[in-house]
Design a protein that fits this description.
- It is built from 25 helices and nine strands.
- It starts with 19 loop residues before the first helix and ends in an 8-residue tail after the last strand.
- A hairpin with a 2-residue loop joins strand 7 and strand 8.
- Among the domains are: about 200 residues; about 110 residues.
- The radius of gyration is 26 Å and the shape is globular.
- By secondary structure, it is mainly α.
- About 40% of the residues are buried.
- It has a five-stranded mixed beta sheet with strand order 6-5-9-7-8. The protein has a two-stranded parallel sheet with strand order 1-2. Strands 3-4 form a two-stranded antiparallel ribbon.
- The longest helix is centred in the first third of the chain and has 20 residues.
Length: about 650
């Protein structure tokens, strides 16, 4: 039956209708997930409805005007850092630095959107714009433009290829939300750990996969604990987590991630749609219904390093202390009357320290937690990208779903990303106590999905009768974010490499000599090969500084086996044995006066990177080769937890 709720999830429409032969094939290759109850989801929806019945005027959905052709592409180019390509007097040189870092599939994604924008401008008889080929030439990425009236209409990567790949084409690009859903995780090697490659751009991996053999049949899993395990191979340069890069370099990541996500969707045959931000009424409240940025600005006046709203920290801390063992925590609703009263008390007493947390029932606190998330003026996953998060469910392959989620999380504004991580870490702790609280991974996911995917400020685009499929899909996306959060909070190696290239190229101005990006990329790669040939040194002596801890520096002999952890241990040994002049010993020395090396971190600073906290398993000679002008600085591990 159709569920009536005051606010509903958004959905991205697939590019093409699904052919019935393939539909039968997909239905036959998997089992159903009917055994996974959605009762918790609909109970949560009803609870939300009851809590907002008195506020229906505030919950009315905003009208969003349909964008004219070319407008979405113009917004995309602006967000991708390529706005200079839009104007009649666009300066190519201002964008070459970014364009020079793009892969083949990324360049094709940019070209298609600029092509669509150019066509729309010509149809509107506006001032002429440059032909896209003046900038890019013709790039054969294997991804074809759909043509027709809209450049973002559905076309398969191999739809214009040979007939023998027709089934493969449909499998990736013609999945219909209305007829086929893949809500569980495909398990190609049940019980076996799979490699999650971050060295090569995800869109390039997908393009290669499509050119290969048809994916093996996947089955539905029936146990959350049987989810496929993925491992990121560290390689010689180690793994970079969110928080390891400087703020300056992290500002470059969302732009690169947006281009890569768009390229991945193009290869897979999905349309990446984004909502326009919806303006809601401002509130005079101090806590609930206040934008994350405003909350953090106020909180940072009290605690300068605050990354997550203090109220959310307090709610999560209280639940961790007294609610993790409570049966049905999160699922069992507290009293709506008490929750509303508690909200008013928090508004007046939270910052004064007078609020008595020990007097509040755990279920009421969980209700406050969900209300805080739900009442944010914009969704925690952002109004712009909430449809994209919802659309992840339509990607058949689990690894590619996680790739898309990883990119979406990197695109999120920092306050949203940090707040989401704090929430997911708490939800993982709830799942870890399921023997006591009876809340397994699926239960938690179905309860939290409505609070993350339903928002009063977004339009209702759900086709009639499709609520169940979309609800299951949203719950599965939440399940993936909880279970794979460590993997999702990784900055892929190929993105770090692109940041390095951006920093290097900022002082180099490559010219489009023949106006073809294909040849530009060839020149960039040729220059890189020349540099790499000069970097075949088998060893190197470098100085490692620790100015905040010592007046002396450490001279380190690097070879192919020298890891970051080895340097930190050497530093620890010399610090203890040689009587170096210690500048600052606060929380650095253990009770026995020895230095704990885990309290120390090694940073790569300068050169082609702003600041990079290094993985202990990274090999320093390899890092030196890709960034010979960097300094190596040992710092004390920050007192506040690093965001992973």
């Amino acid at each position: 039956s159709t569920r009536n709720c005051p606010c509903r999830m958004n959905q991205i429409t697939p590019k093409s209708p699904l052919g019935s032969p393939l539909s039968e094939h997909i239905h036959s290759r998997v089992d159903s997930l009917d055994h996974l109850s959605m009762d918790s989801f609909w109970l949560e929806v009803e609870s939300i409805k009851q809590s907002t019945e008195a506020e229906q005027e505030e919950c009315s959905l905003a009208d969003v005007k349909t964008q004219e052709e070319g407008d979405a592409e113009a917004e995309w180019l602006q967000d991708a850092g390529l706005s200079d390509l839009l104007g009649d007097r666009a300066s190519e040189n201002d964008n070459i630095v970014l364009l020079s870092t793009l892969t083949k599939t990324q360049a094709a994604a940019v070209q298609r959107r600029l092509d669509t924008y150019s066509r729309s401008r010509r149809r509107k008889n506006k001032h002429p714009v440059r032909d896209v080929r003046d900038i890019f030439g013709v790039v054969d990425s294997g991804v074809r433009d759909g043509g027709g009236e809209r450049g973002l209409q559905t076309r398969s990567v191999v739809a214009q290829s040979t007939d023998c790949k027709c089934a493969e084409t449909l499998f990736f690009s013609l999945l219909s939300v209305a007829e086929t859903q893949d809500y569980s995780c495909p398990v190609r090697n049940p019980g076996k750990e799979e490699v999650f490659n971050t060295d090569i751009a995800y869109s390039e991996q997908a393009a290669v996969l499509l050119k290969g053999s048809f994916l093996s049949e996947s089955r539905r899993i029936k146990d959350g604990n049987a989810l496929t395990k993925f491992k990121i191979p560290k390689g010689r340069l180690g793994v970079t987590r969110i928080g390891d890069l400087s703020a300056q370099d992290m500002k470059k990541i969302p732009t690169l991630a947006l281009i890569e996500l768009t390229a991945l969707c193009d290869v897979l045959g999905f349309e990446l749609k984004r909502n326009k931000a919806v303006k809601l009424k401002t509130t005079e409240k101090r806590l609930f219904g206040v934008p994350l940025n405003t909350l953090l600005e106020n909180d940072q006046k009290l605690l300068p390093n605050t990354k997550v709203p203090l109220l959310l920290q307090a709610l999560l801390s209280c639940l961790e202390k007294r609610g993790l063992e409570t049966e049905g925590i999160l699922r069992v609703s507290g009293s709506q009357t008490r929750i509303k009263s508690l909200e008013q008390k928090l508004e007046s007493d939270f910052y004064t320290g007078l609020f008595r947390w020990d007097e509040v029932h755990q279920n009421d606190i969980s209700g406050l937690l969900k209300r805080f998330i739900r009442e944010l003026p914009a969704p925690l996953l952002t109004a712009e990208y909430l449809p994209a998060f919802a659309a992840v469910q339509n990607i058949p392959d689990l690894k590619q779903r996680l790739q898309a989620l990883n990119l979406l999380i990197l695109i999120l504004p920092e306050p949203n990303r940090n707040t989401l991580k704090a929430l997911l870490e708490f939800l993982s702790k709830v799942v870890a106590r399921e023997n006591n609280n009876k809340m397994n991974l699926w239960n938690v996911s179905t309860v939290m999905a409505p609070n993350l995917f339903m928002h009063k400020g977004l339009p209702n685009k759900i086709p009639e009768g499709k609520e169940k499929q979309l609800a299951e899909g949203a719950a599965d996306v939440v399940r993936m974010m909880i279970h794979y959060q460590d993997l999702l909070w990784t900055v892929s190696s190929f993105l770090v490499a692109q940041v390095r290239k951006l920093n290097e190229s900022s002082s180099k101005r490559y010219q489009f000599c023949d106006k073809r990006i294909k040849n530009l990329l060839r020149k960039i790669h040729a220059d890189k090969d020349k540099v790499e040939k000069k970097q075949a040194e088998p060893s190197k002596i470098v100085k490692v500084h620790a100015s905040l801890l010592l007046k002396d520096s450490l001279e380190v002999h690097l070879n192919n086996a020298t890891r970051v952890a080895d340097v930190l241990k050497q530093f620890q040994k010399n610090l203890c044995q040689n009587g170096w002049n210690i500048v600052n010993t606060v929380s650095l020395l253990k009770c026995n006066n020895s230095v704990e090396s885990t309290n120390l971190l090694l940073y790569e600073v300068g050169g082609n990177i702003g600041e990079h906290c290094l993985d202990p398993d990274a090999y320093l000679l390899d890092l030196y080769h890709i960034n010979p002008h960097a300094e190596w600085i040992i710092k004390q591990n920050p007192s506040y937890p690093r965001m992973f």
